[in-house]
TrEMBL record:
It comes from Caenorhabditis remanei (Caenorhabditis vulgaris). Residues 88-338 form the NR LBD domain. Belongs to the nuclear hormone receptor family. The gene is Cre-nhr-161. One of its GO terms (cellular component) is nucleus. This is CRE-NHR-161 protein.
């Protein structure tokens, strides 16, 4: 990663964005300084002046609220800082920012692991196989973002991820469609577009069992219509930014409503969901966005529950009509959850 302010090499997040230590140190000093410039002074100072450099930091996404306030040299002096401290804690979005950073790393890892041209279109079996390969990297992202996952036993880890991952593959397809302004296309996790509906299923079937186009459309087109009409198009209209998308990532994982996880795991999910919602609210306050957007996040989560149900039905129908599915993906989708 590079510093979003000066393009210097950087591997860390500071005050909400990827930045070098020099820019982070400047931003911290400026925020805590009692003497702040009110206008550009580049003519008298070496450009960029402190005012312009601060403006560059803010435009790049650095948040003043993430800077720890300078400690009072007289701790006994009353300062009315308790409310300020509460607000700063409220606006801390470390987990969501960490998820965003790890998601960017995932993008780089995918280029290495998949090593295939995104121009080639995939069939259903290829989609499910790519999803399983990708699942290892997504789990790594989640563990690096949410350290609480490391204390769960293996059964809870497995079930929590199995509950989450099929929904995430569908949700991420919508993210890719939004990025590419191509909402009418379904994408595999490595960015490959899906084939046209009949070919998506037919092309992975053996010639002896291959169905006709009209048969494929009759059986499987309703699932595509449901996905586009009730998931992809509505998500496209909601127009989430990357912070919101990463919040949805963690909220989809931390679903306490499934019965195949332990009570301890369910409690952890409840707690972490509250943390993410609090971080998201703080992000909205920082960016002067309406906090009512939280309801849109909830709407997206409900949409993905519907999508998960349709995917289960689709995989079941694939079994009936001899459409090959990666076995690990099939087990993940069809595992009892409620």
């Amino acid at each position: 990663m590079q510093c979003k302010i000066c393009d210097s090499p950087s591997t860390e997040y500071h005050f909400g964005i990827s930045s070098c230590r020099a820019c982070a140190a400047f931003f911290r000093r400026y925020v805590n300084s009692p003497k702040q410039q009110k206008e550009c002074n580049c003519e008298m100072d070496r450009p960029p002046c402190r005012y312009c450099r601060m403006e560059m930091c803010v435009k790049a996404g650095m948040m003043v609220s993430k800077v720890q306030q300078k400690r009072d040299s007289n701790p006994c002096r009353a300062s009315g800082s308790s409310l300020e401290t509460t607000q700063i804690a409220l606006r801390n979005s470390d987990r969501i920012f960490k998820a965003l950073g790890n998601y960017n790393v995932l993008g780089q890892e995918r280029k290495i692991v998949h090593k295939t041209s995104p121009a080639k279109k995939v069939n259903f079996f290829e989609y499910t196989s790519i999803a399983i390969i990708d699942s290892r990297m997504v789990w790594k992202l989640l563990e690096n973002t949410l350290i609480e996952l490391q204390v769960l036993d293996e059964k809870d880890k497995h079930n929590l991820f199995s509950n989450f991952y099929p929904k995430w593959t569908l949700f991420e397809s919508a993210i890719m469609a939004f990025q590419r302004s191509d909402v009418h296309t379904f994408f595999a996790p490595n960015g490959k577009p899906a084939k046209q509906i009949s070919k998506f299923y037919k092309d992975c079937m053996t010639s002896r069992l291959r169905m006709k186009d009209d048969e494929v459309l009759k059986i499987f087109e309703p699932y595509w219509n449901s996905y586009y009409g009730h998931v992809a198009y509505p998500l496209f209209d909601l127009k989430f930014d990357y912070m919101e998308l990463m919040a949805i990532l963690t909220l989809l994982l931390m679903d306490p409503g499934y019965t195949n996880i332990s009570d301890e795991c369910s409690e952890m999910c409840h707690s972490l969901r509250k943390v993410i919602q609090r971080e998201l609210k703080g992000y909205y306050l920082e960016k002067n966005l309406p906090t009512e957007r939280l309801f849109k996040i909830i709407e997206a989560l409900l949409l993905m529950e519907k999508a998960d149900t349709w995917l289960q039905e689709e995989v079941h129908m694939c079994g009936i009509y001899n459409v090959p599915v990666d076995e690990e993906f099939r087990r993940m989708v069809m595992a009892p959850k409620l």
